Amino acid sequence: MKKISVRIFTGLAVAILSVVLLSCSTMPLSQPMSQSQIEEQRASIRGMARETLSQLYQEYPEAKSKVNRAAGYAIFSDFGYKYMFMGSATGQGIAVSQATKRDTYMKMVELQPGYGFGIQKFKNIFLFDTQDAFDTFVNSGWEFGSTAAAAAQTSTQGGGAGLGVSVSPGVTMYQISETGALVGVSVTGAKYYKDDALN
């Protein structure tokens, strides 16, 4: 009975996520930003990325060499709210190609099933082993669903829940709390895509 309830809840969560992701891609555009507003927002995201890498290196010094060896990386600052068994989060971020040093600004939306209450702030860091993995993430968008969740839950890197997990072939993810501490990766449904207003 308990297994059936879990399956029903999981199916409901996936259905809600699909609606949320679809609405994000079809909702009308807001009023265009001025060039100065665009530059200000870009600078804010770049600053967040630098601070996040600094926090990651402080908590996990070995990550610096992993970042330097990666074909590219992406960093997102997420803000979410959870009430009882359902929550959601939205955020902005940046993807950086190590080969070209080109910045691509991105957005994300996430569904967070599971019991809890309150506001949550966290940062996600993705490392891409290959250029193909990076290009797919940036140019095609990326959906983080049940398949990636299952892979992540069984492939913790470095022997600790907070050190990053493999979420798809050639892609490792780290998660940092608001205080900068490494935390166990919370694997949920999510979609990452280009921010047309900032690129």
What topology emerges from the helices and strands here?
Blueprint: H1 2-26, H2 35-59, H3 63-69, E1 72-84, E2 86-97, E3 103-111, E4 116-128, H4 131-140, E5 142-144, H5 146-153, E6 165-168, E7 171-177, E8 189-194
Antiparallel strand pairs: 1-2, 1-4, 2-3, 3-8, 4-7, 5-8, 6-7
Short description:
It contains 5 helices and 8 strands; from the N terminus they run αααββββαβαβββ.
Report on the structure:
The chain is of the alpha+beta class and 199 residues long. The protein has one domain (2-194). Helix content is 38%, strand content 34%. The chain has helices at residues 2-26, 35-59, 63-69, 131-140, 146-153, and strands at 72-84, 86-97, 103-111, 116-128, 142-144, 165-168, 171-177, 189-194. An eight-stranded antiparallel β-sheet has the order 5-8-3-2-1-4-7-6, with helices on both faces.
Secondary structure class reads alpha+beta
Mean pLDDT: 74
Sheet with most strands = 8 strands, antiparallel
Count of individual helical segments: 5
| Shape, principal axes of CA atoms | globular
The total domain count is 1
Enumerate the strands of the largest sheet in spatial order, edge to edge or round the barrel.
Answer: 5-8-3-2-1-4-7-6
Number of strands: 8
How large is the share of residues in beta strands? 25-35%
Helix-strand topology string = HHHEEEEHEHEEE
Helical residues, percent: 25-40%
Low-confidence stretches: 2-10, 12-28, 80-85, 114-119, 146-162
Could you give the distance between the termini?
A: 49 Å
The radius of gyration over CA amounts to 17 Å
